[in-house]
Amino acid sequence: MKLFVINGPNLNMLGIRQPEIYGCEDYAALEKLVRDTCASMGIAVTLFQSNHEGAIVDAIQDAYDVYDGIIINPAAYTHTSIAILDALKAVNIPAVEVHISDVMKREDFRKVSYAGMACVKTIAGQGIDGYRQAILHLEEYLNKNKKCTQ
Q: Measuring CA to CA, which residue among 37, 91, 40 is closest to residue 68?
C-alpha cells in the first residue's frame, strides 16, 4: 500500500503559528509521526507540503495511478479551492481530509470544505494525531474496498 500525504499552506509553520490553536509540535514532528506510523504498518508513504495551490493540484494529478490513498490537509485552501476539489475528483483516489484544529468550532468561513466533498472521511480537532487516525482509516477503507484482480 502506498499513501500520499499532502499538506497545504502554513503547515510548515507548525509550532510557530498560533500554538494555542495548532499545538506546539512542529512540522518535523508531524512528518515523524506519519513516517513512523506508516513504517510500523508496512505502508510506503510520501509527504508533500506546499504554500501554492497550483503545486498542490499538480501533486494530486501526479498521484494518479501511483498511490492507493491520499491524506490531505488543504489548510486555508479547504475553504476556497474548487481546483483542489476537482483534482481530487479527477484522480478518484480514496482520500481522507485532516485538520489539526476543530474547524467547526472556529470562524464561520472555515465550516465549508470543498476538498472534503471528495473525501471518504474528515478528521478534525485531533492535533497531529489526526494524521495517524487518517492512516488507520485509509488502511481499513482500502482493505475493505480492494478491487478484484484476475
A: 91
